[in-house]
Specification:
heterodimer, A: 114 residues, mainly beta, 12 strands, B: 113 residues, 4-stranded antiparallel β-sheet
């Protein structure tokens, strides 16, 4: 079975600063990786996903993530954050073999202040 | 397109009461899911339906039942609510492949007293 660890429960950052949200996964087989974002009082929406190919994946709103197989990581980055990026971010994994559901991490709250 | 809709948005129950959470999607997706979200726990899968006519247990199915009424609708039933079921419930849908994006509804905030 797969699992996801998000190392930080909260990340405070000032507006226009860079940010990295960390995600590590564990699985006995190859995986697909996802980042979802949840704005206050809303459902989740997809930021980006890694399926195959280039290990650097670009998503919406200027976010990108890099898949590192040797370190089993999929960290999310943004070079300059805005107040509107304040939200909870979830890393998720599914296995490549057959039909697999998503397993989510516990989330990282990104708090952007002026 | 409304996407994924959920009713009700809020609900307060007393211990032992029953209720059904409704979910519908208009994207012609094959797969539908029910999650619960608790502080510090992320999202945990309760039940899912990979395709019309099938349902399977997820990580935390105890105390819940589901019905895939048709391709559009997937309901979650609490037969005898308990305070431990106080949570925010999200329905999601996706096409059949594991790589497909899941689309989430706005959630139902349930309190069990």
């Amino acid at each position: 079975a797969q699992s996801v660890t998000q190392l930080d429960s909260q990340v405070p950052v000032f507006e226009e600063a860079p940010v990295e949200l960390r995600c590590n996964y564990s699985s006995s087989v190859s995986v697909y990786l996802f980042w979802y974002v949840q704005y206050p009082n809303q459902g989740l929406q997809l930021l980006l996903k890694y399926l195959s190919g280039s290990t650097l994946v670009k998503g919406i709103n200027g976010f990108e993530a890099e898949f590192n197989k040797s370190q089993t990581s999929f960290h999310l980055r943004k070079p300059s954050v805005h107040i509107s990026d304040t939200a909870e971010y979830f890393c998720a994994v599914s296995e490549r073999a057959g039909y697999s559901t998503l397993t989510f991490g516990k989330g990282t709250m990104l708090l952007v202040s002026p | 397109n409304a996407g994924v809709t959920q009713t009700p948005k809020f609900q307060v129950l007393k211990t032992g009461q029953s209720m059904t959470l409704q979910c519908a999607q208009d994207m012609n997706h094959n797969s539908m899911y029910w999650y619960r979200q608790d502080p510090g726990m992320g999202l945990r899968l309760i039940y899912y339906s990979a395709s019309e006519g099938t349902t399977d247990k997820g990580e935390v199915p105890n105390g819940y039942n589901v019905s895939r009424l048709n391709k559009r609708e997937f309901s979650l039933r609490l037969e005898s609510a308990a305070p431990s079921q106080t949570s925010v419930y999200f329905c999601a849908s996706s096409d059949v492949r594991t790589t497909d994006t899941q689309y989430f509804g706005p959630g139902t905030r349930l309190t069990v007293l």
